[in-house]
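Final report, section 2: Outcomes. Of the targets proposed, Polymerase/histidinol phosphatase N-terminal domain-containing protein is the one most frequently requested by collaborating groups, and we therefore present its record in full.
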Amino acid sequence: MILVELHSHTTVSDGFQTPMEIVRIAAKAGLAAIAVTDHDTFRGSSLAKRAAKLLGGVVVIPAAEVRSEWGDVVVLCSNDVSDDFPRAIEELREWAVERGCVTIAAHPGYSRYHGIPLDAVRRAASLFDAIEVWNAYTPPHFNFMAIRLAEDLDHTPVSGSDAHVPSMVGVAPTLVDSDSESAEGVVEAIAKGRVRPTIGFPGLRAILENLGWSLYRIIE
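The predicted structure is given below as tokens.
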């Protein structure tokens, strides 16, 4: 089993750390791989992947958090892809499958951050390879509802830190059963359900960093 961060952000969207910095942070945190899931673009993961080739220590998975017509979907890919994804949920799923990617319902039920409604995930579970049942940036109440949903559907559960600041990286990684520490190995393991979520809570430093970063973005 390897530890993989499936949900993180950089300065390419609304994160504090640069793509190069997040690679260093992930390696220091002991992660085998990280998906840089900047909002509506694969550019952050592309830049982080280049940084990883120079720095070593961690695998970067091509990824993005796509704002679909229903809400946020994390898309993880085996290889680099372009930002030509559709917003219609069924078309997004087809787009992902055609490119060897998997789709994850991000923080479902948490409408404040554009999570897909729980009843929508329930009705169309086949559109997702996994459900993010634990998001360290989401109030626990919503995570518990997501856990129950995945259990009811017998659907693959994953976790993610939704890291926007350094101390959040690796707070709630997913355990991935893969012999290959590669993007292909991680994506295949998720598609086949060979994963296990972890439950992690932000520490005091992460809470303060999140607060400071949020205030900065408000007054900027």
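The longest helix spans residues 204-219.
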